[in-house]
Specification:
Layout: H1 2-19, E1 25-28, E2 32-34, E3 40-47, H2 49-54, E4 60-66, E5 74-81, E6 87-91, E7 96-98, E8 101-103, E9 114-117, H3 124-136, E10 139-141, H4 146-154, E11 160-168, H5 170-182, E12 186-189, E13 205-210, H6 213-220
Parallel strand pairs: 1-3, 9-10, 9-11
Antiparallel strand pairs: 1-2, 3-4, 4-5, 5-6, 6-7, 7-8, 11-13, 12-13
Helix pairs in contact: 4-5
């Protein structure tokens, strides 16, 4: 059932793109790579498929445009919260928006941060790394859709988001990456360097997004 929904949703998005004359190469979880002429569309037609199938109202459609085959070249992004109808979007250098209103990540690290952590199917060694953060944080959350959780960080609802499983594809986060960054957040790899990647659907990532430098310092002290 899950795969069938993903296939239908992805085909719908691809059909819309082609009808509108968008001739970019399309990178998608189900379609893999469909060659085009200029630029790259990176999409996850339904992020949070399990939530959608089970009727849990937390899933989204995520789409981004990049000028080259690198995450850092994403210039435009949009994520629609399919359960609520909220539209998040951003263009490089122009800020991030929710339903037409500018949004921003929290500029200061609160005493009681809310941290999103994806631990689905996580290895015991990763749990060991995360244990100090889970123990220290007053509020940890896992909603089941990385892209939308990054939007929650971008609008100030979360202070950090962590996924160290090494399972995330660029298609899962390309749009959320730009929206979070344009809202003032910062994204890092598992090693602590600025998050960067190719856009290949076979690539797998571990990453952390923080609302501000203070939050990064607090988390770094716990790893």
């Amino acid at each position: 059932m899950s795969r069938r929904i993903d296939l239908i949703a992805e085909k719908t998005v691809i059909d819309i793109l082609r009808k509108r004359g968008i001739d970019a190469t399309i990178i998608g979880e189900e379609c893999g790579r469909i060659e085009g002429k200029r630029g790259y569309i990176i999409m996850d037609a339904i992020d949070g498929t399990t939530n959608a199938v089970r009727g849990i109202p937390f899933y989204c459609c995520s789409i981004a445009y990049a000028t080259d085959f690198r995450l850092s070249t994403v210039t435009d992004a949009a994520i629609i919260d399919l359960a609520r109808g909220d539209l998040y979007y951003a263009s490089k250098g122009k800020g991030a928006f929710l339903n037409g209103k500018r949004i921003s990540a929290k500029k200061e690290s609160p005493a009681d941060p809310a941290i999103g952590i994806n631990i689905s199917g996580v290895k015991p060694t990763v749990i060991e790394r995360l244990a100090p953060i889970i123990a220290e944080a007053d509020h940890t959350r896992q909603f089941g859709a990385n892209a939308l959780e990054m939007c929650f960080l971008a609008r100030g609802l979360l202070d950090a988001y962590i996924d160290l499983r090494g399972k995330i594809r660029p298609t899962d986060i390309a749009a959320g990456y730009l929206i979070a960054k344009e809202a003032g957040a910062k994204a890092y790899s598992d090693s602590g360097s600025d998050l960067e990647s190719d856009l290949d659907v076979k690539t797998r990532l571990s990453y952390m997004v923080v609302a501000n430098d203070g939050m990064r310092e607090r988390l770094a002290a716990l790893f």
